[in-house]
Amino acid sequence: MPEQTSNGMQCHEFDGLLSDALDGLLSGAKLDRFQAHARACPACGPLFAEAEAGRNWLKGLTEVEPPAGLVENILASTTGIASDRLRAPALSTPPRVSWLERVQARFSDAMQPIWATVRQPRFAMSFGMAFFSLSVALSVVGVKPSDLRQISLRPAALRHTYYNTQARVVRYYDNIRLVYEVQSRVRGFKRSLTPAEPGPVKPKDRKNDTSKEPEQKQERNYSQTENNLILACAPLGPSVNDLPVVSVTTYRRFV
Amino acid sequence: MEDVQVVAMLVRRCIAGDSAAWEEIVQTYNRRIYNICYRFAGSGDDAEDLTQEVFIKMYRTLSSYDSSKGAFVTWVTTITRNLLVDHFRKTKQDRMTDSMDATTEHEDAQPLSEQIQDQSAPPDAHVRQREVGETVHAALGKLSPELREAVILRDLQDMDYREIANVLKVPEGTVKSRINRGRAELARLLQRTYRQVM
Questions:
Q1: Rounded distance between C-alpha atoms, residue B30 and residue B53, angstroms
Q2: Helix, strand, or coil here: B61?
Q3: How far apart (Å, rounded) are the C-alpha atoms in residues B2 and B4?
Q4: What is the CATH number of domain B1-98?
């Protein structure tokens, strides 16, 4: 845009005043200078005419009517509730409302903020993640939903389940390698701290034994003394060799 | 345009979960938002979808509205404008492949020059006015988005320069310049079209 200094106004100043001139806000000397510049400047004059024409075209545009059902669609997509007020015909008398409906209405009014929170996608996502984590944890532990049906709630059964579970936990705990190692180290440490006690007399070493005495057996058959066989149930009288030989066969019953 | 106290109360009720208050907001602003969307996007179907999106966004971010920072209508218009700009960027590729003579749904798929030929013998003034309106609407769609949004907010929504500057986040001088250039560009487009048919 060529700069014009005639009439004491430059083109950028004219551009700044153009909106005010079209809005009818210019007056007095300012308006005179503006109009003089518009007449003299070959760029600003047509610009003023075009801007005015464009504004008139736009002012001729009328407001368009929104499509029917737009409000209902908006309400359904935001609150999820269809507007009853829009659909219900104008009634001259208010309908009778039972006390149950009134209680329900009050309850729903009170619950509305809670439901609004629950309906948030963020809440639904959190709930879904929590459910997923729980189901994964249960499946890892080995709990199946079908097993829950077979649970007995009798006190004896509950006690039994409790002790079983406790024993399983203790077994699991004891079988952990780390626990075992720690326990054995603690035991070794204790053993090294306790003072040495006189131990039991050790039996003689057979390699160094020069007494030539036979080793006394630990097991002793008290039914035999000095080669005489004593039968606990046999009557005293004849010797063993005189007794009749009786063979007894027992049949074990396999069940 | 709006009673600040009343609107603030309405917004507070909405945030508290009052569906009636939300319905009142929708009833009050749906026409305005639909018109902005229609004039910017050019199509009735797009305008309907965009209007719904604007209200969904409003519903989600209603708690962020601060009445001390500006009027509710400015806040609503800012949301609408931002969504329209996003929509414009998303559909830019589609429009680049369209013909320059592509028209809106109201134009019977004819170029602008051919439509104006049909105005020679309109059945009555009402029909003529409607057809002129559609021609101007089509020309508006050919403006760049910066100029289009400025003239829509000023000449169709009657917002003042300061409000427009708040919505567009540019200085008032830039707003005035864009409005002047938009109006002049629109007039040139329409003059060129009329000159072709005369």
A1: 11
A2: helix
A3: 6
A4: 1.10.1740.10
Residue of A19, A62, A115 lying closest to B179 (CB–CB): A19
Q: Where are the domains of chain B?
A: 1-98, 99-198
Q: Which chain B positions have a beta carbon within 8 Å of A19's beta carbon? A: 161, 176, 179-180
Handedness of CA A65, A69, A74, A77 (dihedral sign): negative
ipTM: 0.78
Of A16, A50, A70, the CB nearest to B187: A50
Per-residue pLDDT of chain A (255 residues; tens, 9 = 90+): 455 555 678 888 888 889 989 988 888 888 888 988 988 888 888 999 999 999 999 988 888 999 988 999 999 888 775 555 444 444 444 456 677 877 887 887 777 777 777 777 888 888 899 999 998 988 887 777 777 777 777 888 888 889 988 998 888 888 888 888 898 899 999 998 887 665 555 555 555 555 555 555 555 555 555 555 555 555 555 555 555 555 555 555 554
Which two three-digit tokens encode residue B164? 């427009």
Taking an 8 Å cut-off on Cβ atoms, the answer to whether A81 and B19 are in contact is: yes
Chain A CB within 8 Å of residue B183 CB: yes
What are the boundaries of each domain within chain A? 6-59, 96-143, 151-191
- With an 8 Å Cβ cutoff, is A75 touching chain B? yes
Q: What is the topology classification, in CATH, of domain B99-198?
A: Arc Repressor Mutant, subunit A (1.10.10)
Which of A58, A77, A81 is closest, CB to CB, to B186?
Answer: A58
A255 touches B: beta carbon within 8 Å = no
